[in-house]
Amino acid sequence: MQSKYPNRKAVEKIQQSNRILLVTHIKPDGDAVGSLLGLGLALQESGRQVQMVIEDGIPLSLRRLTGSDQIRKKAEGEFDLVIVVDCSDLGRVGKALDGKPAPDINIDHHITNEEFAELNLVDAHAVATAEIIYALLNDLELSLTPPVAAALLTGLITDTLGFRTSNVRPETFYLVARLMETSVDLPELYRRALVSRSFEAVKFWSFGLAKLEQADRLVWTSLTMNDRRAANYPGRDDADLINVLSSIDEMDVSMIFVEQPNGNIKVSWRAQPGFDVAVVAKEFGGGGHAAAAGAEIPGAMQEVQDKALERTRLALTGGRHV
Ligand code: 5GP
Ligand code: MN
Fold this sequence. Notes:
Blueprint: H1 8-15, E1 19-23, H2 30-45, E2 49-53, E3 81-85, E4 105-108, E5 119-122, H3 129-139, H4 146-159, H5 170-180, H6 186-195, H7 199-210, E6 213-215, E7 218-223, H8 225-231, H9 241-245, E8 253-259, E9 265-271, H10 278-283, E10 287-288, E11 292-297, H11 301-317
Helix pairs in contact: 2-3, 2-4, 3-4, 4-5, 4-6, 7-8
Bound molecules: guanosine-5'-monophosphate and manganese (II) ion.
């Protein structure tokens, strides 16, 4: 498959480098981890020293991917190239780059990307950052081993919610077919990425579902630290409850408010095709895609809910799409 990304400069930079630092965002999802591992393992195969760093480490559900045990929480040593994957702004990497050189290459598919690196491989039409990584590996003429293919497929599966998002194109399936040819187990990767969940996660949902509200085609709920303790749920995220909310027929936009250990409120938005919630998330210092966006907002739960709901409602009813 011929690459459509302007990768020549990135290819040159990577070919001239031997000690490469790869980082991705806090609270990593399947595309963050899959893109990091796909690129990292392929570069290691080519004989380069690669360090892969995620400030929060890697979620349990993704630990079976080959190479995940190499991911560390802090970068150590000197590097001649720094690559950031799946981050729309540098705040998203947390402290992973503290004391390290500014990023050389930024590889991402978020429409809100701030093009913060010297070279920015940003394509908002790509269904996942993993799609851009695949094209780059192709241009670097690196071999597609099963662990690299499994990592990239995990990125594609998670960010498209199992090929259900409106940005999925015929090329997505050509890419999936090419990755499957390495004999990776697609159903098993799919099950691990999207289907399997812990008892505690579903118990955590029950607290959010009990508080479910709706008004004007907007659906929302909240999850507090108390809910989290009561469910014994270990993550700081919403355990994917937002995807249950966004399956409700009566909604154009769904939102979830998740209290964080630092007192901030993490807000997630999901929208039906035709609406753009990235714009609203960006106003609150976050970002994302038209159909799925997020922001971490300081303040008490009720105050943040009032502000974010009002802003979202205004955009929904204000004559222009959110
Ligand atoms: P989620 O709601 O699942 O955390 O994220 C939905 C989308 O919004 C993802 O593409 C994610 O990368 C992006 N996103 C979530 N939170 C933030 C944030 O705080 N800042 C930025 N820039 N993007 C975010
Ligand atoms: Mn991501």
